[in-house]
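Example record

The entry below shows one chain as it appears in the dataset: sequence first, then C-alpha cells.
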Amino acid sequence: MVTEQDDSRKKSRNVITAFLLRAYRRFLKIRGNPHEIALGFALGLFVGMTPFMGFQTPIAVFFAAIFQWNKISSAAGVWISNPVTAPVLYGITYFVGAKMTGLTPSCNPAGSPEITVINLLQSTPEILMAMIFGGIIIGIPIAITGYFFSFSALKKYQDDIKIKLVKKKEKRTARKQQKKILKEKIYSD
C-alpha cells in the first residue's frame, strides 16, 4: 500500500532528479573547448571547497578569467557547496584541516557549558585556517576527478554533435546529387 508520505518522497526525488538532469544537460551545452570548460569546472569545484561562501563565485570567475578558462563552468562548479551541502562539506573540511594542523576541536559537540560566543570568536582564526587547509586537501582530488569526468562528458557530447552534423551534411549532399541526376534525366529525355 502506497502512503501519501511515500508518494511525496517519490515526487521530491523526481523533482531533484529532473533538476540535476536539466543542470547536467545545460552544462554539456556550454560552448567552448572541452578542456577549458573542464578546467573552469575543476577550478570551481576547488574554490567551492573553501570556507568563503558568498565569495566563492567571484573568486572562481576571477581566476578563470586570469587563466583564460571557462567562467560559466567555474561558477557552476562552485555550487558543490550550497546551503544544503555546506554543513557536511564544512564539517569534513574542518575535521581534515584540524587533523592536518594539529588543532584540537574548539567546541564540544556534547554541548558542554564551555561553549560561549566569546570562546568561538576567539578561536575563529584557528577554525578558519583549519577549514582552509582542509578545503585545499579535499579540494585537490575533487577538482582533479571533476576535471576528468566533465572533460570526458563534454568531449563525448561534442563528438556526438559533430557526428550528427556530418550525417546531416551527407544526407543533404546525397539529396542534391539525386535532384541533379533527376534534372539531367528530365532534360536529356
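Notes for this example: The first helix runs from residue 4 to 28. The chain has a mean pLDDT of 86.
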